[in-house]
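re: the backbone from monday

yeah here it is again, tokenized this time
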């Protein structure tokens, strides 16, 4: 099972590279979860990138402008418009993809399932995933959305995320939000996140 993130699209066009990834995953017998749900041993996995709504601070327009000026995503990813025109992948594209992802997640969570449900996204779904060093950063709205209302409404057993290269383990209602990220490797072969546990196993029931 694999959920793509922003880095998979660096140096490429978003939609065409995604199509290539879907084909490559199928050939490798890997479930690529891009707005896709799979059931494995009774557990339901709902996956998407998620991106962000830039509303974390209640200032979406300034947050989008700042992200567009500073974030690598908006320099290194291209995006094919419905008109066929190619442009840089801009914050409004990310916000539009976020809305599509959120619609998908909400739709899937509303479908009854007898076993545990796990949501897997690249971007973070809750402000409790913001590390202290990023609290108040003008870039944080580009990494994290506050999906408390969806989590509290549907209460999936587990929500796993990535993107911020940290470790997180907390609860929103009955939902466990979890991240165990290695982060970037350094020149010494160590990982950016010293709290990364390569042997981590999370049980859901």
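seq for it, each position gets an aa:
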């Amino acid at each position: 099972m694999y959920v793509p993130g922003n880095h998979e699209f660096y140096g490429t066009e978003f939609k065409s590279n995604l199509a290539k990834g879907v084909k490559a995953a199928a050939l490798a017998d890997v479930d690529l979860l891009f707005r896709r749900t799979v059931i494995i041993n009774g557990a339901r996995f709902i996956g998407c990138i998620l991106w962000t709504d830039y509303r974390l601070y209640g200032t979406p327009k300034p947050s989008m402008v700042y992200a567009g000026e500073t974030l690598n995503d908006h320099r290194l990813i291209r995006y094919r418009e419905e008109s066929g025109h190619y442009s840089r992948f801009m914050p409004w594209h990310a916000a539009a993809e976020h809305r599509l992802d959120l619609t998908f997640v909400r739709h899937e969570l509303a479908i009854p399932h007898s076993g545990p449900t796990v949501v897997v996204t690249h971007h973070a779904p809750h402000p409790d995933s913001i590390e202290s060093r990023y609290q108040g950063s003008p870039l944080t709205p580009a990494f994290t959305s506050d999906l408390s209302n969806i989590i509290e409404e549907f209460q999936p057993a587990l929500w796993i995320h990535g993107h911020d290269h940290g470790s997180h383990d907390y609860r929103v209602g009955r939902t466990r939000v979890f991240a165990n990220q290695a982060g970037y490797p350094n020149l010494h072969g160590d990982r950016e996140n010293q709290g990364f546990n390569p042997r981590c196993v999370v049980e859901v029931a």
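The two ends are 19 Å apart (CA to CA). DSSP finds five helices and nine strands in the chain.
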